[in-house]
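Input:
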Amino acid sequence: AQKVTQAQTEISVVEKEDVTLDCVYETRDTTYYLFWYKQPPSGELVFLIRRNSFDEQNEISGRYSWNFQKSTSSFNFTITASQVVDSAVYFCALTEIYSGAGSYQLTFGKGTKLSVIP
Amino acid sequence: EAGVTQFPSHSVIEKGQTVTLRCDPISGHDNLYWYRRVMGKEIKFLLHFVKESKQDESGMPNNRFLAERTGGTYSTLKVQPAELEDSGVYFCASSHSENTEAFFGQGTRLTVV
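Output:
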């Protein structure tokens, strides 16, 4: 069975501070994808990143960076110099990579609500 | 390019009534998914269509839920009869192929009273 744990339910930071959102996952599969989605107040889930289990390189995209460590089953997300527009609920998710036809159903964490205070 | 669109954005119905949610995926996306988030819990997978066929419906909670995707374009999710525990946000997502990222709609917030 798969499981994604986002231990931080809510985080508040002051604008321009750095913040890290934690994600720990469990899976018996050796091949899988990890994702981060952002849910702003408007409600839709916005795709941020997908990382496959073969690639442990960290990734940086502007103020966003992701730290994937298989040894600790973690896929943490850091926002540098946070802004008010970063306020949202952030979800970490996991799916198996099937070799053939299959359903890429996502297993989500409960989400972390980030509030950036001006 | 239009994103995934869901109708309605909100629905309040009485227990025992029927509600139909609609999802219009991104044009050209064969894969369509339904998910649900019940208050305070994780977003849970309901089912997956590939074109008009149900690829995986292992997440459907019971036979009060019926999903269709006639013609392989838009999809509907009908709840009949609705129960209080069906309240939550229903998300639809679509993807071009099974191993590409899924794009989500804004969700339909269903409240059963």
